[in-house]
Amino acid sequence: MSTLSREQVRTMMGEVLTAQGKELPSEDSARLDAIGFRSLDFSELALQVEDELDTELNFDAPGLRSIETVGDVLDFIDELQKAS
Fold first, then answer.
1. 37, 47, 68, 74: least surrounded by Cβ within 10 Å?
2. The domain 6-83 belongs to what CATH superfamily?
3. pLDDT digits (tens, 9 = 90+) for 35-59
4. Which pTM was predicted?
């Protein structure tokens, strides 16, 4: 299975936000609630990641509850890719 780099996932996050007239900050420490990245946006990102990888990932993981920053999203997607 191919994997997406953190930069590729970051670009995808940016595209989700840009479609809503928002901008993704460059800092991984940026809080999702502060930039307006909601759970629906995460779902859209998850679908894009799955499409790009041509596989289903287990997004039911308990780690979803602890995602608060851009870096958390990138770490979470990294971990899911490693687990697949």
1. 47
2. ACP-like (1.10.1200.10)
3. 999 989 999 999 999 999 998 887 7
4. 0.90
